């Protein structure tokens, strides 16, 4: 018969068994062999059971080696061995830890978020080869997974890797998911777990078992994605509202901080202004005291004003600035220019705050020698002077 007429599918998984050796019975009359030789030739069928499908599977290179502690290394081995086993590259896997896969799929910004699919393989499951060759090598399913899911994988064939997976699920997905996988029997494998996240909690929303047909697998993936997408839309609305609330709260906090900073700045400025005013008032008060002390000192130094009838006197008229009036006093011609300045100080006109000018000739008396007498300066018998403020 040809392969076409045999009914074998275009893609099929075949197993090889050793054909049983028939029991040969020898006639004692015609045999030249001894009894011992005859007993060797009597082979029981039970001796052929050692080379069955399980022993064939055990000799294949595993998708993930026994006692694999590095998830990335295990997945790199997975994608290296898978094409050798099933003659196709298979699905596109996330190479990295389960925790990283969760971060990259379910914790991404909402516009880039995807559900997480976890493929769990078991070589000793009767469905393993068929599922891999017909489901994981299906172009339609591979493309749909690549476009809509983040796919992570693990091989539970060895107990060490099964224990590690259960620990990973407990740590990163949740105890409920871990117990669910742990309770499933070997014949349910392979499995595809569909994981989503709602309000910060990881959720196992679907388990696709190994006995599911390719069409059913695709439908399950589509339905699971639609469930995820509906929840994603609700999450997007909630996240938008939350961001709006947070932005409003942040804006209010910033405005409060700005207002508080402005109040603090105003208070600081007010305190500085008050300090300056007090310092200025204190300085002015000290200046007043100093001026008053100088006035009193100069008043004490001045001799009594001469009488109009006294000899050798001069009368000085001093015109004040800003129409403040005229000061007039008699001095002795032997009085010095310093005596004139002392008189002005006693009247509250401090030396250094003014210029004292004579008219004929025009001179700045404050620039002259203070020990010169009025007589020497020819400021007699009378003179009109001008006081200019500096």
Automatic annotation (TrEMBL):
Residues 26-36, 265-288 have a biased composition (Basic and acidic residues). It comes from Didymodactylos carnosus. PROSITE patterns: UBX (PS50033). Residues 309-387 form the UBX domain. Gene3D superfamilies: Glutaredoxin (3.40.30.10), Phosphatidylinositol 3-kinase Catalytic Subunit, Chain A, domain 1 (3.10.20.90). Pfam families: FAF1, UBX. One of its GO terms (cellular component) is endoplasmic reticulum. Residues 37-47 have a biased composition (Acidic residues). Residues 25-47, 262-289 are annotated as: Disordered. One of its GO terms (molecular function) is ubiquitin binding. It comes from the Eukaryota. One of its GO terms (biological process) is ERAD pathway. SMART domains: UAS, UBX. This is UBX domain-containing protein.
